[in-house]
Each structure stands twice: as C-alpha cells, then as structure tokens.
From TrEMBL, chains A, B, C, D, E, F:
Keywords: NAD, Oxidoreductase. Pfam families: AlaDh_PNT_C, AlaDh_PNT_N. One of its GO terms (cellular component) is plasma membrane. It comes from Elysia marginata. The lineage of its organism: Eukaryota, Metazoa, Spiralia, Lophotrochozoa, Mollusca. This is alanine dehydrogenase. InterPro entries: Ala_DH (IPR008141), AlaDH/PNT_N (IPR007886), AlaDH/PNT_NAD(H)-bd (IPR007698), NAD(P)-bd_dom_sf (IPR036291). It is an enzyme of class 1 (oxidoreductase). Belongs to the AlaDH/PNT family. In the N-terminal section; belongs to the AlaDH/PNT family. Residues 80-228 form the Alanine dehydrogenase/pyridine nucleotide transhydrogenase NAD(H)-binding domain. One of its GO terms (biological process) is L-alanine catabolic process. Its EC number is 1.4.1.1. SMART domains: AlaDh_PNT_C, AlaDh_PNT_N. GO terms for molecular function: alanine dehydrogenase activity.
C-alpha cells in the first residue's frame, strides 16, 4: 500500500529551505516536479516509504497497509449492497442463510488484516499465499472460518467462480505485482461481485483496476464492481494519523536528539530513507527513474 | 424492525380477487387505501407482521431484524468515514491505535446481531438492556470485547459522551419505543458520531431520526450523522429473501396442505396473522386504527 | 438413537420373577418373544426408552445420542481413508490444503454433538435443520467453521454434490424419519463419500442404509461408503455406561427409596416408562404393535 | 516422519536415463539397490528428504509430518474403541463423563498438529517438550484444554499412568530419537491404551514399536495397542499429494526455469537435496552409509 | 448466598414508622429482635431475599451469588499462596508447569461464575452437578479447560485427592445443603488446599466451615485452609451495590408508581417478598420459625 | 524481575569450598559480602541472572517474570477489595455492571502474562508498549478484551485517570527503567487504585514504589495502594521452583556431563553466567560495581 493522498501542491513545497529536514511520504519516482523542487531546495529529504527496519521491512508503510487491509472488507461489504451495484448479499448471512464468500489474494499485512475483519463479520474466508510457513501461522492465529490455501492459478480460478468479494492484497516490494485476476477472468465471476484492489496505486494485482477516489470509489466492468481507491486510509484520518505517528515517533526522536547525520549513521534502516540530501539524489531507484546521477550515502 | 419496502402500487393489488389467499407484509394500519382495497377484494389477507409463534414472538419479523441488526454496524462503520461525514475512525483500529466505541441500545434480536458484528470487527462494544437474565446470556455467548450493561439514563448519558457509533435497537412490540436519545443529548456527543436507528419506521428510539432511503440514507444534526433507512434489509435482497422464505415456508406449506381455515384453526399463532377475511377486518388493532368494525376470528 | 445392543437371550430373561422390577432398555415393539416372556413373568418392566422428563424429552436416550453423535465424525474421518474405501481426504486438511466438507442432517442432540467434533477437527461443517430458533442457538454456541443452514431439498441437493461426509441425525420421536437421502441422490455424490446414519435402527433418514455391526460396519453402494452400525455406543462401553448411569441414577434412587408405585405416581415421566406391569401391557404403542389389550396406568 | 510408501520397484526405476532429473523421495541409505541403480543411470537425483530451507528445516518433510500428526489422533480415537482392542472410551467424553487423556511426546510439527485435533475433539491434552520457548508459543496458540509441560522422565512416568492415548512425535533430525517409552513402562499403563508412534520408520521413540501397514495397522503388547503404520499419509493420498505439491512446486519451477545447476547454485537449500549426480554420490551421509566415495557439490 | 452484612443495629431500625415501606434484606428468621421491631413498627417490610421472578427464582439474590461466585476464585488463588497457608501454587501455572486443579461443587449461579474466573486464570476446572441438562449447557458456554462432571460421591472423593482449590457452591433454596465435604474427607486432601464455601451462611456444603469475616477470613483444619467469609460481596461494595440496584430498580419503580398494594397484586413474585405488613407476619416460613401466627396475603 | 529471596546468610555460604561449582542467583552487585566470600572461596560461581540464550535473552529470569506477571493481577484483584484499601470493585464485574480497567505498562514477558490473567478474569485491559511489532503479535494471541496501545505519555496520562489497576512491567535489561508513573501523577488517579510494580527490585517504573515483603505487601500514598513485593514468586514456591528447574536443567546437565569449562566453551550464553572463578571476578559489571579488577573469560 503506497500512501499518497494527492499530488503535493507547489504552494506547499516551495516553502522548504536549504538544510531543512523533511520527513514524510515523497514517492519521488511518481512525481518529477517534486523531486526537482527538493533537489533545488537543498533540503534533507527522508522518505517514509523507503525507511527500513532491521529485517528489511518497511515499518512506515505497514500501518497504512493495516488500515487499508481492514478497510477493504468494510468497503466490500458495503458495495455488495444491491443499490450500490453489488449482489445484494449480507456478508455474514443470518442463521439459516449462507454467508458470503470472501477470497483474499495475499497473506501479508493487507491480507491478514482483511481476513481478521472478514471472519469477524461472519463470512467464509479463503486467504491465498505461496508461503506455506505463513499459511500455517495464519491458520494458528485466525478464526476457524478462515481457510488458508496455497495460491496457484487452479485455486484462484476455482474460488472466484462463486466468490462474493475478492481482495487484492499482493504486493511485490519494489516490483510489479502479478496480475492474478485478468480481464478474461471477470467473465467467470457472477454479477455483482465486488473486487477491492488494495495495491492499486502500484499497479495492483487485478488487471482491470485503475485508481479511483473516495468521491467516486467504484466502477463496473462485466458486471463486477471494482473498488480501487488509491488512498484508502485517507478516509479514516484519525486512525491513520495516530497509526503513522506511532511508527514515525521513534525516528523523529532520534533525528531530533542526534541530528539526521548521526541518526542515519547509527540506524542503517533510517539511512535508507534518505532520498535527496542537499541537492544530491542519494536513493538509487529514484535517480534511475529519471536518469539522474546517484550518490551513495548509506 | 417493520419491513415495508415501499407503498404498494394500486396496479399491483387491484388484481387480487375474492377468495384468494394473500400472505405477505401488509401493515394496514399505516396505509388505508390498501386496507380498503383488500376489504373490497374479499380476499383472505394473512399479514406476516402479526403472525405469532407459541411464545408470542413474531417469527416473520425476526429474520428481518437479524438482517437489519447485522447491517447496522456495516452502515455505522462506513458512515464513520470522513468523506461521508463521520469522525474518520476505523471501527477496529489497528494494533497500537484504540478501536472505536459502539453503544448498542437494546439487547434483543437487533442489538444482539449488531453486537456480534461490531465485536467481530474489533470495536469496543457496550450493549444495554434492562433484562438482567438477557445480559447474562449475552455475556456468555458474545466475545469478550462486548460489555453487557444495565440500561438506565445514567449509563446512556455516560457512554454516549465518547461513543463513535450508537445503534438504536429498542422496540416495544405493538407500542412506541421510548426516546432514549433526545435532541438535547446530541449536544453531548462528538462531531462525526454515527447514529443508526433500526426501529425508525416505528418511531424509533432516537428522537431526531426520521425515515430515509437507500438513495439518501443519512442526514446530519448537530454534527451527528443519522442513518435511518426505513427498510434496511431491502439493500441485501438475496439474503433477506432467503431468510424470509425460511421463516414463511412452514406456514405456506400448512396453508397449502390444509387450506387456510384448518391451518389457522390448528395453529393459533398463524390465526393471529389473519387481518382481513372476505371483506371483514378481523385484527382488532387494524380495525381500531380506522374506527372500523372488528370481527373476532381466532 | 435407539440403543439395542443385541437381541436379549432367553437364558438371560428367563430368570426374571414375578414382582421383580426390571429397569432397562426393552424395545418391546421390535422383539415379541421378550414381551411375552415379560408378560408371563409378572415383573414390573420400566423401559428406559419411554421414560420422559417434564418437557416430554427422553432423558435416558439423550446420553446415547450424545455418544453416537460424537462418534459419528470419528467414524466418518476413519472411513474417509483410502484403504477403507473413502476419498483419501484428511478431515481437517493441513495449512494450504482445503479441509473436508461435512454435511449434518438434523440439528438435534446427534447433529449438534457431531458438529462439535467435526468443527474441532477442522472441517467445514454445514448443519441443517428446519427450526430457525435452533439454528440461531447453534450459531451462537458452535465454532465459526460451522454454518447452520435451513434444511430443504434445495440445500441438501446442493451440498451433497461436493460433500465428503454426510451425517444422518434426523429422528422423529415415535415416528418414521423422512428419507432425506434417497437411492437416486447417491449418484450425485462423489466416489468415496462416507455416509453415517445414526438413526439407522429406526429406519434412518438415508434410504440405502441398513443396520451393520462393529465387526462389519460398512458397505458400499454406487461408490458411497455407508457406515450404519446399529449400536454405535457399544464400541465405547466405558463412556456409554457412565453416561447412562448418570442419567438413570436419579430414577433408580427414587424407585429404591419409594417403591415403583409411589415413584411413578410422583413422577409422571417415570410412569411413562412403565411398559409391562404384573402381566398387563400398560404402554399403548406396545400393546397396539401386537394387537394386545392395553391397560392405562399413568 | 520419513515418507516411503514402499520399496520402489526395479521395473519403475530401471527406465531412468542419463541426464534425467529425478526429484522425489529416495531415502537411499535404507535401500542400496536403488542407490546403485541411480549411480549407474547417471541421472540427477534430488531427494525431497534432504532439501533444506534457509533456516535448515526440511520443507519437503513438513507437509507429511502435518498430515501424520493430525491423523495420529484420528487413529488413536478409533483404536480406543473396544472392538478394536482399546479401552472403550470416547475421546471427548460427553457432558457429565470425563473425556480421554492424551499425552503427546514432542512439541514439534507432529505433536502440535496432533494437539490441535486432540483438543478439538474435546480430550484433555498434555504436550511435552524440553524447549520452553516452544511451550510458551504452544500455550498461546492452542486451545485451553492443552497443557504444555516440560518433558522429563518424571512427567512422562506420571502422565502415562492414566493416559488413554500416547502419541510419539519426537524426532531428532538425522539422528536416532530417544526411547521415551520403554518396554518396561508399558506395564505401568492401563489395558487398552493406544500408542501411536509417528516416527516409527526412523526407529521411533517408543521401544516396542515396529512398522506396520494400513492393512494390519496395530498389534498389542502387554495389553497396550500399538499403532505404528510406517506411511501414515498414504491413507489420505488426496490431501497428502496436494500438500506435497504445494511444497515442491516452487522448487520444480526453479529447476524447470533455470536448470538444476543454476537453481542449486542460487538456492543452497535445494543444492542440499542433490544426492546422486551423474554417477557420483554427492550427499555425505549416503556415501558414508555404504562406504562409498563422496564428492562435495554444494 | 445469603447476604447479611451484619446484625442491623437497633439504632438503625428503631426509626422506622408505621406505614413506611422498607424494601431491603431482612432475613427475619435468623434475627428475632428485628422481626419484633418490625412487627411493632407496623411498617410494610418487603424482603429482597424472598422476592421471586415468574420462574420461582430469587432475582434479588442472584446478583450477590454472581459476585460471590466470581470472588471465590480470587480468594482461592490468593490463599493458595504459601505465606497465607496455601500450597504455594500459582493458579494458572506457567508454560511448562502444570496449573492448579479447581473443583467446583454445584453448577448453579455461584459455581458457573466461579468456573468462568477459574478457567480464565488458566487452571484445570471440574464443575459438578447432578443436572445433566445444566452440565451440557455449561459445556457449551464455558472454555475448554472446564470439565462438567456428574456429581456423586465417587467423583467428589476422586477429585479432591489432588485438588488445589475446592469451591462449595451448592445451595438448596429454602433447605439445608448436603454436606458434600465431611470432616473425614479433609484427611484425603493435601496440605495447603483451599476450601471456599460460598453458602456458608446457610450452613454451607462443607462440614467444617463456620462463618468468618473479611478481617479474619480463614482458619486451618487438618492442614486445609478454610475461607468462609459470610458476606463476600461486602468486600467489593461498588460492584455489589450497582449489581443489586440493577436488580431492585424495576421493583422500586413499580412500588413508587403504583403503591405497594397494587404493585404486589400485579406481580405475584414481588408479593412473595412481603414478610411483615402492618404488624402481621405474612410470610409463612418466618411465622413458623418463631411459632407466630401467619396471615396469608398473596 | 530480579529474584532475590533474601540476603543469603553467612552461615549458608561460608560452607562453600574451593573448586566447587555454585549455580544459582547471586546478584553480586547488590550484596558485597557475598561477592567477597565467593572470591575468597575460590569457587566457580555461575549466576542464573546473567546466563544468556542465543538471542541474548535471559532464560533463567524469564520463568520468574512469567510467575510474577501472572501473580500481579491476582494481587491487584485482591487489594482492590475495600477492606484492603482498594476501590471495592470486582475485577470482572458481573453481567450488567462494568468490569474494572487494568492498565499494563510494558508488553514484554511480565506484561503479556499479566494481560492473559487480567483478560481471563473479565476486566478491560490496556497493554502499552513502544514496539509496534510486539503490539501486533499481542493483538493476535490475546483475547479481545485486551487493547494493545502505543506507549506514550499522552496515552498513559489519559488511561490512568479511570484505571482501577496499574501494572508496572517495564524493564530495561541491565539499565534503569524509566519512571512512567511519577509521584505527581498519583494525584490524577482515583482513591483506591492499586499499583503493582513488578520490577520494583530494579528501581521499578513507578516512582513511589519501594520494595515490600509478603508479610506487609502494601502501603498507601495519596490514596493509591502500592503493592511492591520484591520477590513475588516466593509466595508460590511450588510453581516457581518447578518453573526454574525446567529452565536450569539443561545447563546443569551440560555442566555435569562436560565440566564447567567445556560446557562454557561450547555454550557462549552459559559462559556469560560466570561471575567469579577461582578468586577472579570475570563479569565486567560486577567488577565495575565495586571497582575491582576484571578478568575476561568468555
């Protein structure tokens, strides 16, 4: 889950001055004017999205993935309502009536949090992943109405035939997620199914998804409702902000206590967050994205 | 939860002929033209909403209350989103961030089903009722994030001060539910709180509620979002229809096998469903509602 | 679940003398020589199988139904093994592999206990009943991998198509259970499915079942494995005996303390257990079964 | 759990040609003719049983251990039935009657999966291990009727005195498991207890166990029923095959995409699977087992 | 659980005047001076302890039994500490060490609430009752570390041999509870076991118990610690008072709204609470206790 | 949790002779006479409290932290009783009455075990930690009435305002824990709140705590009850001893089998336990504490 609420306004970032430390989401690779402004400003730009923890995970993206994963089911349940284009099924059913079937692609942060909410609401949940150790872990911590299944084309094809909600939660960090649901496969699904692609802003794992907004969150192809809001956590700013602050606080404190140079020296993962420093691009992928010179710093 | 999808159209009910058995929701008291047409038709009108089981419960209303109770949380969660007027809080929070607080007024069918979904989504749930035996039962079957509490003005006032969602699920069968949340009390609530009044079509237990539709489900008073759709189950017709059929099937079979007269003779609760028979009003409350003569039949 | 370990031997019951109180399972209707011997003996015969509690339930049959219901899944799981004729599926699957699907017909004592074990072993469980109140109760006390569903021909037909185990737990007390699974329907099932009919000794609810023994418990029709042992609890005599004694103890004490006449006078349900008293048949259904005179006693 | 369905037939492996890649279970050390045939064939033999993951675990044995662990309780429950030699106890008891007591030796894959099923069936479960961190983990993910206990002679002796089922799930990878249950200790157990030794094909941890088959799975010593089938997963081939394929698929894909040499170069754990390559023995333990020359390859 | 904080002081009750309604715990049978003063006062005395609900239960005693039942385990755990005379065992153990064993006599309100806390703290719990329906219900709502067992001398004798805590929660309403634990049986128990007799103020079900106070709550006989505080809820007055008010509020409102005469006329159970009315003793058992004339009023 | 039952008596340790291996808790830094005696004795002193496992954790302190963490709630619940100075609240409430609120500072071993017991007893639990990965793990293994929250001054201040029990479970290994609850903050708390500082013997995280004993475990400041027993596990010696033996056994066996020198050579973590060897101080912190020469040995 990449978090990018909106294109930042020039009026906002033009105020940044040389030597200032800016610690936030940048996503330089996707918006060149911002990169150029930051290079020009000679500020110290530490990007949330590239900070790493000691295991190489992205600790400042995880909270947003948690929020989006949990929200994805809330959205799926809502858009399953008939007046909104869905099949007209209540997620958890009622005693005597079968509940909805939710298929979650990916057993990472997004998928796991989605599975918690989907099972809590009483649906039948399938969560698919290729990592068997992860599947076993999920089988041990999730409720019994969640079935962890090996992810392969056979299982996906089989399960979507009578799925009510499909959650796309597959993300290859720094890479393109595979298109697990193709345009062709929509035809196998029933009318009114809801797809939620949580990774839509990175291309997503559902071929027919393209980013939408909270104002116009869904569109329909082949009778299948697509919910592909690019910045899902933006709808719950109270929760998202606190979650993000919990994660950034330790880094902010380190930078404030020690200065950015010492802080980055002592914490290699924080150093990985440096993207632009005093006019130089110091994160290789950003430099490469625009064929600009790269200067190693960590 | 009274279920009345829409005013029935004359074009629909004008086709009914003498001696036909019509077994459906009528709600005669709230729509005089329908009553008059049925009296004129000389049909046998058995109203879902007045059929009783052997304990005096209303078995053909319960499935709709179950659907509405479960849906109420789905709606509350959705309208808690900032772009829809809510506080911008995610119902279940995420690890490290406190979840939302849901206050459910009434521990009957609606409230219990609401509590199941609210707890399943990870919120902190309070369910209030004046029946201690019921509270003990709820404490034994609901998850541990549900606190069953005695319902009194003190507890309600105290809890709504920092509630995020309030569900009105109080219904006095055949009577007017008390106004547990008054206009005045809205001022004590925070901006962006969501109220869902499931019993709105019977007056409801929230003073400021008035019926809305799935097309325009909410309105705001004093910063508080009101969701008061009169026919909530109508949004999930697949689930609602199957749920209702499960409940009506046994009665339909009896009527078909034995004829309505014998069926009603053998099952006093079904007999209570008779409202209009061959031109006579046979349900006292309906007769009284329009000062019409009443003929006892059960 | 009728419990009848074997035809009683004449050598056993020929020792009974006039005035003796015999409190045990008799099942007179199904074995005339025993009835005649008891009539001749002039003993007091109180039959476990017809004693009733204050709600008209059969408290001395319930423990055996509990044992048989729990055992039914143990048998289903075992005979699902390939070398025993089954599909070669492990009931609970393993992480990454889908578990088996268990369909339980009837949500009474047998079905509920079966559902507890089947869900505990990790399978996907459907339990079907026509009583919606019962289904709601089951949804509140059983684990989340059990789906309580309304029982009708549509649901049964749909579910057995890919079921792995089908449990017959339907019993109409004092009547013939309907044949919910007919010979014809076996063709819709997959090879290696296991049927367990717990009520087989009363005709059962699976048309193709006929009683078998622990020595040769199964037979195969149309590729479907039938487990139809008539006295399932007999395989776990330790548990069954203690369970039965728990239930009979109170009655035995009453009879011992007060004599059978006073005990039966004070406890109408115990009185219903009287079948043959001093040479007279005092239980109507037994008398009728053999066109013998009946003398009312309770 | 070593998986070896049967001695491979010469007619099967004589068809293998030079340069072919054979990726399967070999267990060369236990069957010399196969080793010699493979050496002679000049094929590339990658043995499932020696492939390692990045933590040194054996990912192609784990799925079989999961299957066997879960099955072990199914077998224990079945053979506890009286007609099969057991105590005649129902694993989960019924309300009012104490359930059976299951003692599981080893808290690894086999023991953990056994504990899940045993607790799900309602028995009282003790799981013993010497690793306290593992015991804490088990206490956090297993149901409350499982008691994780430190494994020592005192506890084992104490627990088996009134155990109903004992599961042997101790395996020292690449070594001989200790004999935790000796011949002598059988005398302390009650008649009709069921022992299941899941690691029997590696010597097992129960002294009196010797491998049996699905055709004749049990034998009795000192009144104690021994279930020691060498290839337990073979009875549920559908589940076992899918589970195994889930685990091997990634390796097969790597080998197919890159050729075995590059695949083994990039994945050291896969390289550990190489046993015989073009006529040379490249796995040290296999070479040593027959005093043959060993050629290092990883 | 009879609640009687202390002997009421004359200075307190001497202020009561003719015609006043006094609605509180009286327990007249156990304190004659109070009875005489009330008779003399000509007040209307409605005793909490004899009010009944429509099923004949005592709704104003239940809340106190709930409090005492839950507290009983808290006390048991505390007095199991070595410095307080106990065995020096931690109730829930820790991973690797076996938890304590708690035996609860009686599956009514007290026993059920005790079982909830004891299981929540991680101990092994046995709850004994003679009512099999109740045991089944308990098995369905309590955690899996609670074993519901039939109550008989054999089971009690067997279980207390290695019990750590024994809770006496047996109460025969209006009668003397049987002495399930006799003086003799203490010898079979281990040193440092803790007995908690919740019904001590009615004689209790443990022969050696005699009422103690919160100031000196325990005494030791044969090495067994006895906790027998007569008014357990008095130690948690906040919880007890709110719990009691929840239960009495409806009655108080009825009396206030309608006057005691009409209220008692309409609610037969409340009428059962009348003990002394305008100088007459109107509750038979109280009159009998002191050989005073009784005047029927309900 | 440092475990130090009492100052060791000279009469005890004066018996130790040269070359003897003493493997126990020493805590040399806090008791100089013991250090000097051991130096003089020329014994081999291996201190439980400094042995490390392969991840740098302290495996011989963990069992004591587990015991103390679980006990902390037992103590909190008891001292919350009115006669002992508490608020007079029952930890779990009863149906209809709100349960107590427990705030646990620190999500490590102590805090996690405390949360298990507090939630098991039915209270509302907040557990605070700065490690988000740990909070997520806790949210996945603890019951739903536990809310894992990010630990910061804002949350602590907010939560203690209406907390009933506060558990101090923060420990900086080898360092001073921060004073999360200051003297000033007590004024914000309600009268009768109970504080339990489990790390009191290392200074603790509650400013006003000073070590107490099992004989006089509590004192009151500003109306707040402080429970600060320095050696909590000492009250449950049976459990503590077995827990400790489980942890030490493997080390004892290694030392016995191989001698201390080889054992310490092969296990670097055990080597870290060496404090005094043949008259030399070989643990740096101990040497530094008394400005004595230090000799490296591992």
């Amino acid at each position: 889950m990449i978090v990018k609420v909106k294109e930042p306004l020039e009026s906002e970032y033009s105020l940044i001055r040389s030597g200032q430390i800016v610690f936030t989401y940048f996503h330089f690779a996707s918006y060149k004017p911002l990169l150029e402004a930051m290079v020009k400003s000679k500020a110290i730009c530490i990007a949330y999205e590239t900070v790493e923890d000691s295991l190489g995970r992205l600790p400042l993206l995880i909270p947003m993935s948690e929020v989006a994963g949990r929200m994805s089911i809330q959205e799926g349940a809502k858009y399953l309502e008939k007046p909104l284009g869905g099949k007209g099924i209540l997620l958890g059913g009622v005693p005597g009536v079968e509940p909805a079937k939710v298929v979650i692609l990916g057993g990472g942060v997004v998928g796991t949090e989605a599975a918690k909410i989907a099972s809590g609401m009483g649906s039948k949940v399938y969560i698919l992943d290729v990592n068997l150790n992860r599947l076993k872990h999920l089988s041990e911590i999730l409720p019994k109405n969640v079935i962890p299944l090996f992810s392969n084309q056979y299982n996906i094809n089989r399960l979507i035939k009578d799925a009510d909600i499909v959650i796309g939660g597959v993300l290859i960090p720094g890479g393109k997620a595979p298109k697990l649901i193709t345009r062709e496969m929509l035809k196998e699904m029933q009318d009114g199914v809801v797809l939620v692609d949580v990774a839509v802003d990175q291309g997503g794992c559902i071929e027919t998804c393209r980013p939408t907004t909270h104002e116009a969150p869904t569109f329909v192809i082949d009778g299948v409702v697509h919910y592909c809001v690019a910045n899902m956590p933006g709808a719950v700013p109270y929760t998202s902000t606190v979650a993000l602050n919990n994660a950034t606080f330790g880094y902010v404190k380190k930078i404030a206590d020690k200065g950015w140079e010492l802080a980055c020296k002592e914490d290699k993962g924080l150093c990985r967050g440096l993207n632009v420093v005093k006019g130089k691009i110091v994160y290789e992928a950003v430099a490469n994205a625009f064929n600009r010179p790269y200067k190693a710093i960590c």
